[in-house]
Amino acid sequence: MTAEHVTDLATSAADGSDPYLWLEDVEGEEALAWVRARNAEVADTLEAAPAFAGTEAAIREVLDSDAKIPEVSKIGEHYYNFWRDAGHERGLWRRTTLASYRSDAPDWETVLDLDALAAEEGESWVWHGASVLRPTPTQLAAGEPWRHALVELSPGGSDADVTREFDLVDKRFVEPDDGGFHRPRAKGSLGWVDADTVYVFTDFGEGTLTPAGYPRIVKTWRRGTPLADAVPVYEGTDEDMYISAWRSHTPGFERDFVHRSKAFYSDELYLAEHAGTPEQRLTRIDVPDSAEVGVRREWLLVELREDWAAGGRTYRGGSLLATSFDAFLAGERDLTVLFEPTPSTSLAGATWTRHHLVLNVLEDVKNRLHVLTPPVAVDGGHAASGTAWTRTALDGLPPLGTVAVGAVDPVETDDLWLVTTDYLTPTTLSLLPLGAGPGEAGAPEELKSNPAFFDAQDMTVAQHFAVSDDGTRVPYFVVGRSDLVAGTGSAPTLLYGYGGFEISLTPSYSGTLGRGWLAHGGAYVVANIRGGGEYGPAWHQAALKANRHRAFEDFAAVARDLVARGITTHEHLGMEGRSNGGLLAGNMLTQYPDLFAAVIVGVPLLDMRRYTKLLAGASWAAEYGDPDDPDQWEFIRTFSPYHLFDADRTYPPVLFTTSTKDDRVHPGHARKLAAAMLAAGKDVSYYENIEGGHGGAANNAQAAHMAAIHYRFLAERLA
């Protein structure tokens, strides 16, 4: 494309024209020809560099390593794992026993071989997970096995997938002709009600999807009947985002729920009694739409995003509250505060075991664990009046690392999976028995740990705080060789950020990053900017819609602070962001080009005028605003990189990456801005993977190739 095709994109947003609209035709012949030409350019430049093959091989070795931790989920007496390596590109679903898992060489039994399935069916299947029906106590007492599974598979990695029933005993799919459940490809899912009934929320035909392309209707579906005969349970409106339903199978507390997602951060939860029958009754859980609700045994948990006045007092946004589920539905508002945020703390998660609730608290982006034990229920299922939750802190956690916990089996035990990691310490998986009573936690048993994929002996991690334009302190982590982190002013530095959807960026070990970047003398920085969840809902809400600029100002403040501290210079500083972080990267490119010597924009949102019309974009209006509202477009246009691009301005070299199969964030975003910049003669590299979905890669080979492109680009531009 030549310079005469360059158009004022800001003007095009106003008059409705768009010279690159043709690139939104995802698999159109002309658009894919353009993609292939761009990929060929990357093959002739970045991929042709002498160091590229070595970097790709080193990263592939990490991804394919047999020494990685095989993460497991307890299903009955077995521990299941999904595994990919060099010999199993698409992966194995396999199982073992706990005794075998404890050994150095577990004896794995293959349950489903995705490579064999893909070859047999001629489909590039990508694993999306599985859900297994818990047998009833009566069935377990009779010796019945865990048999019924629903397996989700995606062709090529797209969000749209299929659900197929799988028999865990016979290790085979239960075909529709044999009465098996099979949901055709769409965005949606199935969920077990009982062995012969599922909830189904999917594409039922015209008018059954929301504007974002997600299910608008949920039904019950009986085994042996056509999907067309499924019985409606709940139907949302044309303005909703996602409708779903599920059953809680906790023995003695079986309940059904319908979930109505109206938008991000706006939900309704209904208790569904006699779902799908003439006696059906839906009772809404009367909490703020912005709150997150959890129900476990006799308890209702409410995590607030905003302040809430109830029962004669006001509870702060970011708090976690508990009460009796039955009493709450009866109108009582006796709420117990389990967590209340401070200026330096937020709730990262809450995990139930059989007798406890484990709170994971972030304190200046460092994890702290607290074990809470609820009061014992008395007759009628309620706790005795005046009894309180007990609280015990779990000590001995890494000072600058991440700690994650998960229940091994919350119905049967108080055991926890404990995962610890940081930027330089390989991840460790331990088994932590809590015991039934308060303060009875035993010592963690280390089960597995990842190998050290790179030499970190002379490296260090530091946490600093930058000051944003409005005076807000913004934390960030710096990782690299000790002399570089201490400040020499010459380190090639990669600055990474996200800043959206209340997602926190916490320290984690990456052999890919270590081999591809740190081992070659690069420094790595993670900025915990507003829009994320590092300091709870308020940290996120500070950068919503008209305040989106705060996230960009925070990131720019970190970039400047790195230079001020002598860690790097602007000539050696690059940045990367993906998805919402791709929007961040696009704004760094167009609004702060002088701060960076290289920018990587991955699977991004960039055309904020049309984002709500592209794939799942309509579901994100609560985050960014509605561009079809003239008043909101006035602030959205200030962070729409596609329209901020100025052909006469100087920009740093940029690498755009995306996936043809990404059915969440449309590849047209990356294609169009790349095309506009190329037409203006800018330094642009563009790579689009044909598979991979929103993750960008469908297997380890593709992931290694994509990562090697990233690191080669940075190495050449930041040297």
From TrEMBL:
Residues 16-252 form the Peptidase S9A N-terminal domain. One of its GO terms (biological process) is proteolysis. One of its GO terms (molecular function) is serine-type endopeptidase activity. InterPro entries: AB_hydrolase_fold, Pept_S9A_N, Peptidase_S9_cat, Peptidase_S9A, Prolyl_oligopep/macrocyclase. Keywords: Hydrolase, Protease, Serine protease. PANTHER family: PROLYL ENDOPEPTIDASE. This is S9 family peptidase. The lineage of its organism: Bacteria, Bacillati, Actinomycetota, Actinomycetes, Micrococcales.
